[in-house]
Design a protein that fits this description.
Radius of gyration: 25 Å
Distance between the termini: 90 Å
Shape: elongated
Order of helices and strands: HHHEEEEE
Helix content: 25-40%
Strand order of the largest sheet: 1-2-3-4-5
């Protein structure tokens, strides 16, 4: 009877076995977490790009039908399929943030988006919501529509921070010259 009790006590994992399992899990986590973080960041950028594309298309349709590029969110959203009023795009106040009134929040608070217009072109800029925290690594997306119907896009893969009109944003090409993605 004594041997039976000793065998029951010996069942289970030893401390060394548990340490090895924890070490293996730590190594796997150190590989997987950065990979999944990168995927999340790219997914947010793709979602922001779909908003930019839809708004550029809406602005182009508005230009064709009305004769000028939209000058307000309400005009933009006339042909925007995601909603029919500017209240469908979240305002900055929902996230306790200060905006100048032209920005809207997209991708569940991950990006700010705003539009720019001139008589011959219409631009959209989507950029990270904050420079700290979860959104600080979001990648910028810009788009531009011109009077001849061309739409151009810029997706930044670097951690550089870009916002503003696509034709005056401070984005530099490989030679250090400012880029105009509309031209």
């Amino acid at each position: 009877a004594k041997n039976l009790r000793k065998e029951k006590v010996k069942e289970g994992f030893s401390l060394i076995e548990l340490v090895i399992v924890v070490a293996v899990l730590a190594v796997l986590s150190s590989i997987a977490i950065p990979y999944f973080s990168s995927l999340t960041r790219k997914a947010r950028q793709i979602s922001a790009a779909s908003h930019v594309d839809a708004i550029l298309k809406s602005a182009t349709v508005f230009k064709i039908k009305q004769g000028y590029f939209p000058t307000s969110w309400d005009e933009i959203l006339v042909y925007y399929k995601a909603g029919s009023t500017s209240s469908n795009l979240e305002s900055c106040s929902v996230y306790n943030s200060q905006c100048n009134g032209n920005e809207r929040v997209i991708v569940n608070g991950q990006y700010l988006i705003t539009f720019f217009n001139q008589s011959d072109r219409f631009g959209i800029s989507a950029w990270r919501f904050n420079n700290t925290g979860e959104t600080s690594t979001n990648l910028s997306v810009m788009g531009c529509a011109t009077v001849d119907g061309m739409r151009n896009y810029l997706f930044k893969d670097s951690n550089a921070y870009y916002q503003g009109a696509p034709w005056n944003s401070g984005i530099l090409d490989e030679n250090g010259n400012e880029m105009d993605i509309c031209g």
